[in-house]
Amino acid sequence: MVWGAEQALKSAQRVAAAAQTERQRSTERLARIAEEEREVKEKISVYQRLKALNIIGDERRLEWADALTRIRTQRELLDLRYRIERQRLILSVPGKPGNVDFFASTMRVELALLHEEDLLRFLGDLRNSGNAFYSVRSCALTRGSASSSAATPSRLRGECSIDLITIVDRGAKG
């Protein structure tokens, strides 16, 4: 009877140990799933912010032109010229379910300025327009020429090269 009781105890201990191991595995799986869920929510939040800033999706050249016209009018910039170059692929990141491609269109801007801060305000307004991610590659300020007339009293000229970066998610639906 004692031997039978010991065998039953050992059997119960094995069953309890197996159940404990299974419980630990389930707890670890649940923790991994919770971590993955947190990461997905975090990534969705970033994606939604990028989408709201119009960084994800096709180029918005018309909106860029409208933003430049609006900034020129609001800031009363005397002379603003720009040229947007052809879009080029800068990086392609394979992923699931599709690829994410980063594109850049370089915009060359020339503008007449009354003060250095006019350039900084222009760049700030451009960034706040929210039609792309604007990455300033370079900006140069030069003093205006002696031939500046009274009609164009600019004292400085600014020349900038700005990358307009958009992201295309090939795996996105709609």
Please tell me about this protein's structure.
There is one protein chain. The chain has helices at 2-52, 61-75, 116-128, and strands spanning 80-84, 88-93, 100-113, 133-143, 156-169. The longest helix has 51 residues, at 2-52. It has 2 domains: 1-52; 61-169, 2-Layer Sandwich (Alpha-Beta Plaits). The protein has 174 residues and is α+β, with helices and mostly antiparallel strands. The model has no long low-confidence stretch (mean pLDDT 86).
Key features of this structure:
single chain; 174 residues; alpha+beta; Alpha-Beta Plaits; five-stranded antiparallel β-sheet; 3 helices; rod-shaped
Rg is: 30 Å
Q: Give the strand tally.
A: 5
Total DSSP helices? 3
Shape: rod-shaped
User: Strand-and-helix sequence, N→C?
Assistant: HHEEEHEE
Q: How does CATH name the architecture of the largest domain? A: 2-Layer Sandwich
Q: How far do the termini sit from each other?
A: 73 Å
CATH topology assignment of the largest domain = Alpha-Beta Plaits
The portion of residues assigned to helices is 40-55%
Strand content: 25-35%
CATH class category label of the largest domain: Alpha Beta
- For CATH, the homologous superfamily of the largest domain is named as Ribosomal protein S6/Translation elongation factor EF1B
Largest sheet: 5 strands, antiparallel
Number of domains: 2
Structural class: alpha+beta
Question: What is the residue-averaged pLDDT?
Answer: 86
**Spans of at least 5 consecutive residues with low confidence:** none
